[in-house]
Amino acid sequence: MKNKLTLLLLLCVSLYAYGQPADSLTIRKIYNEALGNGQSYEWLRYLTQQIGPRLSGSDGAQKAVDWTKQLMEKQGFDRVFLQEVMVPHWIRGAKEMAYIQNGKQKITVPIAALGGSVATPDKGIEAQVIEVKDFPELRALGVDKVKGRIVFFNRPMDPTKTITFEAYGGAVSQRANGATEAAKLGAVGAIVRSMGLAQDDNPHTGGMRYGTGVPLIPTAAISTNGANLLSKSLTENPSLTFYFKQDCESLPDAKSYNVVGEIKGSEKPDEIIVVGGHLDSWDLGQGAHDDGTGCVQSIEVLRILKALGIKPKRTIRAVMFMNEENGLRGGIKYADLAKQNNETHIAAIESDEGGFTPRGFGIVGTAQQKEKVIRWKPLLSPYGLHDIGPGGGGADIGPLAALGTVLFGFKPDSQRYFDFHHTAIDRFEGVNKRELELGGASMAALVYLLDKYGL
């Protein structure tokens, strides 16, 4: 009983240190507004179903720019503007084809070209296959065993990692650099196991890059089921061949834009707090969880503040970054302009881990800054935000770190994210309305505290 009373006393002291009960009541109002009058779900419906895929340089990306600008203008934000940025323009072309030729048996498997890859020759590529788990294993084989073959990178995401982004980080290098490492040893193509934990037939695309001075060989992701089948077939018949054909192409860079909306600060307008997501998406699905949810949640943060009549001390910006998926040029451009314009960004929050149930925020800053935010836990934990502490910020806001900005990565539950990530099933139907609205409210609550107390 004594321990319980002590904990209750400590909780009360912590709460009242930050203006309780006023802060608690305001945060409750924020959640009530999001859950009772939220707009983010219908915005997401339009973005995904009426506009759809938004790969940088595409017509869909430009439509999304135009729509989000008009949407924020309709909300009556103090200022809405565009930031021009040149972006890569890669197109997939005709649907890819692939099969395993195992003796007389031909088995079709699902693949998807990786973003930035070159095409195969018109007739496709067919060759014997070398399976490896990592780059050291590949290098140990040497040119004699790799030249003229297709390298099959088959390192699964580690299913024992409870934080799925750690599993992703442990596997994604083969997607990013596999083609380059294979080409160095004379391979004619590279096939990479999809970055997903589910065993299914959905290939996961994603960005790759070629090293300087290395031959450009075509590379594609194979579904996890396809990867399992190919690996099993190779065990039975190491001499089988694999065929694939893809028609992708890189066009000249295209003009695009970051879209920015803001509410001007009433006391410290030169201090800026950013909330954002990336507007571009891969072309296979509708870009719902990646990252339509982050975009509409960010706009919803400003809408909630305005609807509740909260006049922030500092300027609050919602930024729709362009080109996170295959270049990060929008995030770099935003930071460059912030530096050029001598802007002071005290904090930036990015939502780019899907629209699932909120769990907390990862913080990139000094020990003192992290400790200050952690002391707000009693205000946020009633809404399920228990995981607040050191962690990553986000790719688009990362370049702001050099300007002294404290970075926050919004952390929803991650267990299902990589079922959808970069696939054709990343569609509106996969997003739960209530989870999405809780995420927007969580970001708005953190913005409210950051604005009121600073860092």
Kindly give the count of domains.
2
Mind summarizing the main beta sheet? Answer: 8 strands, mixed
Strand residues, percent:
15-25%
Percent helix range: 25-40%
Q: What CATH first level of the largest domain would be assigned?
A: Alpha Beta
**What's the CATH topology label of the largest domain?**
Aminopeptidase
Number of strands: 16
Class of secondary structure makeup: alpha/beta
Oligomer: single chain
Rg over CA atoms, rounded to whole Å, is: 24 Å
In spatial order, strands of the major sheet run 1-10-12-11-13-16-14-15
What is the second-level CATH architecture of the largest domain? 3-Layer(aba) Sandwich
Task: Give the overall silhouette.
Answer: elongated
Let me know the CATH homologous superfamily of the largest domain.
Zn peptidases
Mean pLDDT equals: 95
**Unreliable spans:** 4-13
Order of helices and strands: HHHHEEEEEHEHHEEHEEEHEHEEHHEEHH
Count of DSSP H/I helices: 14
What distance lies between the first and last C-alpha atoms, to the nearest angstrom? 36 Å
Structural commentary:
Helix content is 38%, strand content 24%. The chain has 455 residues and is of the alpha/beta class. It folds into 2 domains: 19-89 and 252-453, Zn peptidases (Aminopeptidase, 3-Layer(aba) Sandwich); 96-249, Glucose Oxidase, domain 1, CATH 3.50.30. It has an 8-stranded mixed β-sheet with strand order 1-10-12-11-13-16-14-15, with helices on both faces. α5 runs parallel beside α7 (173-184). The two termini are 36 Å apart.
